[in-house]
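[audit] Reproducing an earlier prediction to check determinism. Same input, same settings, fresh worker. If the tokens differ from the archived copy the diff job will pick it up downstream; this log only records the rerun itself.
[audit] input (322 residues):
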Amino acid sequence: MKKASLLLLIFISLTAFTCENEGLDPDIEIQTTNPVDPNNPGDPNNPNNPTTGTFQVDINGETYVADMAGAAYINDVVNITAFRNNNEETITITFKANQTGIYELGVANPGEFFVNGAGYVPEAGANGFVSALEGNMIPQGEINLLEIDEVNQTLSGTFSFTAYREETAGNVEVLEFTNGNFANITYSGDFGDIDNPSNSFFAKVDGVEFVEDAVNGVEVLGAFNTIGITAIKNSFETIGLTVPNDITPGEYTFGDPGDGTPVGQYNVSQTETFIAEGTLIITVHNTESNRIEGTFSFTARPFLGDPNPTYDITEGTFGVSY
């Protein structure tokens, strides 16, 4: 299995190392390579376009301009994802932040469970490139979050990073992402307190209760309209479910990321991601009140590589508002 998913990328690369936290400098402007047509309100590079943000970056010197980009904010973690080529070519940047500032990407910190990071999937079915290197102490890039517009719920900033992919032992491909910028990218979630006391979650991992620190639900609109349900323990260990946002009550089988079916996952650490094989039952989904409830159980197998080890996730129940 060599597919990659936005949900998985969200949790593969998570914690923050803040070099500097600054307010937005009003003199800084987001620069774009493509010219803006002021007479075309649909031009994605037009800063006056109220419905479309922009995202672009040079990959080894060739400019990537996203067809669509979106963002989500959950449990103090920002995820920005850009899509191109029928949504098969993706760039995802994930970092922990609740204010503007500069955040390092791809550096492991002693005592922390995870790192900020970025990922790139060049095409459907391909292994992805990632900025995070296990045990690494040297930053592989940075993201500068220049503006958080909480009124219009948009983000703007700049970024650069180096990403790696090891197809065979000792054969590492390297890509340089430079001159990256994003402007007016719409985000879902709330940079205030998004924890909801009405949320509930229970599951066992190999017979032992998973005692989460927080459980959240978030709806992500864009190329894939989904609802993400995430229980987080010790900052990184997570059990996550992602379902189509129009899912109706019924029984479902967990599938592969990107195929339109519910996806389940279990993350043990920054480098250990497991995908679900099992069953999800939706008992309640009220799209007017944004409430979803259900039960689940699955065997979690490694997302890539060796099929072992596995974990049994049982007695799962949840009820979350999003």
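[audit] rerun output stored. Observation attached for the diff report: The chain has two domains: 6-188, 200-321.
[audit] end
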